[in-house]
Design brief:
406 residues, mainly alpha, 16 helices
Length: 406
């Protein structure tokens, strides 16, 4: 119990929910005005502006994919709270400095630095998983998922609002200030009981050893869950490059296209925000593996028809249902990873999961543009459904543990 009488795990969850929400916001808030901000930093042709903006956007994810496992190993050796504090203050500094840049390459460098310090979300998740009673683990991980999903969802809206109300540069200062507040709350209010085991640390294989996953009790299950994260994230991000163009086509190039496209894009995130705690509680009762299978089945069913309807309203409903389905996948994968990972490797496995999400985001964005050029917009939705179907078949075939009750 904390001094206030509230269980420590609940206070940790509350504070770290705020931390992940602000971190998620910081990652996504630049999206509405990215190209506009880059255009203010130099004179670019239309083509060059798109390329530089893409580089600014991708820099964070590329660095996350490379550095996340390193941060996870560091956290398992020195404590999740310590790394949480280091990455929070690092993110606060990097985002604040974005408001002071004078050219696009400084912005690219700081976006890369933001990716380097992107340990807030996996370490907050690992800390919650380690400090929460096992019978409440699914619920707690469902709640923490709503933090960064909500941040990613509301970030573009909040960023656009603040940029319009103040200026683009002030937006970075405000977000940096909120991250610093998150740092102070985590410093003084979050408690960690985990103590690294020096003997286990000494025997841990190097990250550069291809067999480093063998430190987990079930490396095959861990590997397939990470592959599933990449595939599900790729499916989600494959839609983003084409969704506004698809909405434009459905609306016959008339009406508030950008507003409708923004709403359609945000619906899966809203649904995940609402449904994650429900799936987490249900998983604690009937088994996380069953919820994961349901999530894949529902996602496949709701993805497939999206490209064949000519109604924006029906598209919106299906996108919302996909979000509910994804809420049965993302947090449940994390719950299974937590349950099947020893306490000394929790930070590592959640950082690997973050790296998998970053890889999926990059692959999905490229895949969506490529497939839509060959098969039109409907092909993206069909391909995503087929990809998830293959993922489910491989999980059932190669990982028999998924069929058992967990």
């Amino acid at each position: 119990m904390s001094d206030s009488g509230q269980p420590v795990w609940q206070r940790n969850l509350l504070v770290l929910w705020f931390a992940t929400f602000i971190a998620g916001t910081g990652f996504s808030e630049v999206i509405p005005f990215l190209s506009l901000y880059v255009s203010e930093l130099g004179k670019f042709s239309h083509g060059n502006l798109s390329m530089v903006s893409g580089l600014v956007y991708a820099a964070t994810f590329v660095v996350v994919a490379v550095t996340a496992p390193m941060w996870g190993r560091f956290a398992d050796r020195h404590g999740r709270k310590r790394l949480l504090l280091q990455t929070t203050i690092g993110s606060a500094i990097a985002i604040t400095l974005m408001g002071l840049v004078t050219n696009a390459w400084q912005l690219v460098a700081l976006r890369a630095a933001q990716g380097f310090f992107a340990g807030v979300i996996p370490n907050a998740t690992a800390l919650v998983a380690a400090e929460t009673p096992k019978k409440k683990e699914g619920y707690a991980l469902g709640i923490i998922t709503t933090g960064y999903v909500g941040g990613n969802l509301l970030g573009p809206i909040l960023g656009g609002f603040l940029a319009g109300l103040f200026s683009i540069r002030v937006t970075f200062f405000i977000t940096g200030g909120l991250l610093f507040l998150s740092f102070l709350l985590s410093l003084f209010m979050v408690k960690e009981t985990f103590k690294p085991d020096p003997k286990k640390i000494k025997n841990q294989p190097s990250l550069f050893d291809i067999h480093f996953l063998r430190e987990f009790p079930n490396p095959k299950l861990t590997a397939w869950l990470l592959v599933s994260t990449i595939i599900v994230q790729a499916g989600l991000y494959s839609i983003y490059p084409v969704i506004s163009l698809f909405v434009k086509e459905l609306m016959n190039n008339h009406g508030p296209i950008t507003v409708v496209a923004g709403i359609i894009s945000s619906l899966p995130g809203i649904a995940m925000l609402i449904a994650s705690p429900f799936w987490g509680r249900l998983g604690d009762r009937i088994g996380s593996n069953k919820i994961l299978i349901y999530g894949f089945i529902f996602s496949i069913i709701f993805y497939f028809p999206q490209g064949f309807f000519t109604s924006v309203i029906v598209l919106g409903i299906l996108r919302f249902l996909v979000g509910i389905s994804n809420a049965a996948i993302y947090p449940i994968i994390q719950t299974l990873l937590a349950k099947k990972t020893p306490a000394g490797s929790t930070g590592m496995v959640f950082s690997l999961n973050q790296a998998a999400q970053a890889i999926g985001a990059v692959v999905g964005s490229m895949m969506g543009g490529f497939i839509s050029n060959i098969f039109d917009y409907s092909g993206v939705f069909v391909f995503t459904a087929l990809l998830l179907l293959v993922n489910l078949i491989l999980l059932e075939w190669r990982v028999p543990e998924i069929r058992k009750n967990h």
